[in-house]
Amino acid sequence: MSMNRLVGETYSKRLFVFWIPLFLFVFVLLFPFFWMLITSIKTDAELYNRRISPFLVRDPTLDHWKLLFNDTLFVQWAWNTLWVACASTGISLFAGVLGGYALSRLVFPGSTIFSIWIFITYLVPPALLFIPLTGVMSFLGLHDSRLSLVFSYPTFLVPFCIWLLIGYFQTIPKELEECARIDGATRIQAMVKIVFPLAIPGILSAGIFAFTLSWNEFLYALVFLSSPENKTVPVGVTGELVLGDVFFWGPLMAGALFGSVPIAIIYSFFVEHYVSGMTGAVKG
Amino acid sequence: MTERFIDSRSVQTEQFKISWLTTVLEDQRVLGYVLLIPAFLLIVVFIGYPFLLGVWMALTDKVVGTPGNFVGLANFTKLLDSDIFRVAAWNTVFFTVVATAIKAALGMWLAVLLNRKFMFSRATRAAVLLPFIVPTVLSTLVWLWMLDGTFSVFNWILRWFWDLEISAFGLVIKEDFGYIRGPNWLGDPYYAMGSIIMANVWRGLPFFAISFLAALQTVPSELYDAADIDGATGWKKFWHVTLPMIKPVAVVVVVFSFVITFADFQLVYILTRGGPNNSTHLLATLAYQQSMHTGNLGEGAACALFMLPLLLIVIILQLAYLRRQGVQ
């Protein structure tokens, strides 16, 4: 009897202390995605009828999806975003891997000061720089060009990559490199053939995280690009699918859905790398 | 004979060149600088120079298409005198502090929940992070739709409860479902700020939760065993064992989020555009409005620069903290 009561208590306690809060968290965090999906497959007649329950889809339709893919530049925006994200991630990884190696392994005058500067630039937000950067981009002839994003995204990606990779390089034992150098390898050979291969998980984490950051960036893309065909997904969907003050919620939610799906798919393949990139970035 | 001689000599110079380069690069003082060239160039051209240019622009009356004249601190004093700016500055601080505090508290709670082992715990952890990884503006669009003046799903639920209550008391059979409208989420200044904070918390909470979770997993279980032996209860264990152990990570997470929230642009741009009546502007959106809509680049740059003092304080505190950690 007393045993039963004890088990019952812990069970109900577990329900209230653990399962219900967890369910509420997950529900709230995922509900907007559900809402995105069902809004995008409802007919306009259902969307704009306040008398019926918005939780049910009575007459599912793919019209909004078709409109998004056939009658808007969405595919072009997705292609632009992909191109910009890959190029800026590539540049940032190149600069980040070399810089991270130098700052974590090599002793030279000014390395500490340079690390501190990297940390400070890591915390400089785009909102502080976008007005003068617009001038710099026009000066370089890059206004309304996707290249302006390829060069501006590394401003926040490079400090991030360096910061993350300094931490990662420090976990690779120095002895491995020293052995290679005793065997006659030069510094560069030891770096490229011994250290970089071992750092691939860290480089992958930095790359995945940098890619999602560039895919999601909004402010620079909003300010630097003006032609519809040059825009990225975030700017295109929010800018071109709203005509005047009229919001077409069906296509808008379809755009939000399909702008999020690629990044969610990449994330699902690399969850562990993404998380270690994210947590590595704040471990310092 | 001479041919061979010349040939071997050119091979020698070639070898000499290679060995000269490798010798120079063997010196870590040289190699260090060489490896930093790409990062250095990017930072100088696209952060350092724009930053200085921004400071210069803030001191001029530059409007789009003109070179602008030096006006000293006129932009700054003009901003400090304007009500819209003061509201924006206050909003920025209020929004940042409140949103970061809520995210930290709820994030810690969720991290503790996720730290248990349960069915689908890995899948749950992965799913919980989704709001953080999808493009912010796109998820904010959903919030805009959910907070819509006419079709808000929250207001639909409120009306539904209202309706239930009425039919339960058997008072009237209403003609129009939707007797009460519910709050005008984005049309009322206070509700609008609340909505912005809500959307920010929704997006940032997973970042806190997963970072805290990673920190929680590094706490050795022996510490909890020892606390159990001493008779510590759940809350006491959390305050005296968990919190001190994860403090270093927690500080960095909070600072990082603080800086990002402080400079937030996208939420306000999508949800309210600073309205109603410029009551929800943040410094970033006000700078955007001044520079890109009004074309007043000098004033916009000055407005953006007002973010700097607080950012600097945070950065300096953070550096000091990291240094102390390093010493320990």
What would a concise description of this structure say?
Chain A is mostly helical.
Description:
- The complex is a heterodimer of chains A (284) and B (328).
- Chain A folds into two domains: 2-61; 73-283, MetI-like fold.
- In chain A, 77% of the residues lie in helices and 1% in strands.
- Chain A has 15 helices and two strands.
- Chain A has a two-stranded antiparallel ribbon.
- In chain A, helix 3 packs across helix 14, helix 8 (154-170) packs antiparallel against helix 11 (200-216) and helix 13 (233-240) packs antiparallel against helix 14 (249-269).
- Chain B is an all-alpha fold and 328 residues long.
- Chain B folds into two domains: 1-58, no CATH class; 78-149 and 184-327, MetI-like fold, CATH 1.10.3720.
- Chain B is built from 15 helices and no strands.
- Chain B has helices spanning 2-26, 28-58, 74-81, 83-114, 121-128, 130-133, 136-146, 153-169, 189-216, 221-229, 234-262, 266-271, 283-293, 297-305, 308-327.
- In chain B, helix 2 crosses helix 14 (297-305), helix 4 runs parallel beside helix 9 (189-216) and helix 4 (83-114) runs antiparallel to helix 11 (234-262).
- The longest helix of chain B has 32 residues, at 83-114.
- Residues 1-5 of chain B have low confidence and may be disordered.
- Chains A and B meet through helix 1, helix 4, helix 5, helix 6 and helix 8 of A and helix 1, helix 2, helix 4, helix 5 and helix 6 of B.
